[in-house]
Amino acid sequence: MAKRTFLDFEQPIADLEGKIEELRYVQTESAVDISEEIDQLSKKSQQLTKDIYSDLTPWQITKIARHAERPYTLDYVNEIFTDFVELHGDRHFADDLSIVGGLARFNGTACMVLGQQKGRDTRERGLRNFGMSKPEGYRKALRLMKTAEKFKLPVFTFVDTPGAYPGIDAEERGQSEAIGRNIFEMAQLEVPIITTIIGEGGSGGALAISVGDQVLMLQYSIYSVISPEGCASILWKTSDKAQEAAEALGITAHRLKSLVLWTRS
Amino acid sequence: MNEPVGGALRDPRQMAAFLKRALNDAFRQVGDLKVKDLLERRYERIKGYGRFTDTKADSK
Asked: Which helix (H) or strand (E) element contains residue A61?
């Protein structure tokens, strides 16, 4: 089994899992049968995970939503869709790798899928710009959605971005225009759009591909106008208060349901 | 939408299965709508965003 990365509030689970691992190691060497003990500890570990996860703060959920091992758009595309053919480029400037998309089949029905993709390792993260898209990324998304409209294909989008890329080059090429146009076009796109927030739904970066007929949100995902750190540094001039900001922003699926921002569970 | 115990990353397979079912349900609800109804529905949904309470300006 690959080594798991534990978050700070998961420390008790990490300790227990470590102990189990140790026992397994000992067992292979010794004649005494301790498999029963291992089983018991495994059960205890599962129960502990359940307990910890039944009572999470918004800040802890934020950390899960950003977890480096969390499945990304392409993981879901590979598991859920078939015959995926990736399409590239916005036909204007460049191919933004932070958004992936293309034709695929969902239960045999031809459709268009697209979503933000963060990177797994350092190299890929750089390549995909940590899932922060530039205008060409949103324009690529729009191009794909327009193609879908032309061929009457439903659109599935997956949102997982810290936010739109705030660099100079992005602004030079009209970042807010690209996002605004996407929202405008999506509101009148003549095919069904089904959106899922799978991790971080950061502000405009998320909105540009999430005007849908159905909006789904995973249990441990977040959707907000600004990251908790960003909010804290603006309001309190320090990002140390991100925890409080997360609390106040109401960014979790549970809170947002009460505000009817997403459609179904 | 629920995730497996310990979050999606502990069991991506299971998560994908959950998501597939949910997407299927979601798609069934909107897949057969006429374009006009679909856009109408989307418009109403977006219009429904946000809630506020109106306080009268009469009391100080």
From this structure: helix A58-65
Residues 24-53 of B with CB under 8 A from A: 24-27, 29-31, 33, 35, 38-39, 41-43, 45-46, 48-51
Give the nearest partner residue to A261 out of B7, B20, B49, using CB atoms. Answer: B49
Q: What is the pLDDT of residues B8-19, one digit of tens each?
A: 777 788 888 888
Out of A4, A213, A216, the one facing B1 most closely (by C-beta) is A216
Predicted ipTM beyond 0.85: no
SS (H, E, C) A193-213: EEEEEEEEEEHHHHHCCCCCC
For residue B33, what is the nearest residue in chain A, using CA coordinates? Answer: A192
* Residue type (1 letter), B51: R
Instruction: Note if the pTM is more than 0.90.
Output: no
Rounded to 10°, the helix A135-150/A175-187 angle is 20
Contacts of A154 in chain B (CB under 8 A): 27, 31
The torsion of the CA quartet A25, A28, A32, A35, rounded to 10 degrees, works out to: 70
All residues at 6 or more sequence positions from B4 whose CB lies less than 8 Å from its CB, including other chains? B10, B11, B14, B15, B18
Residues in chain B within 8 Å Cβ distance of A53:
5-7
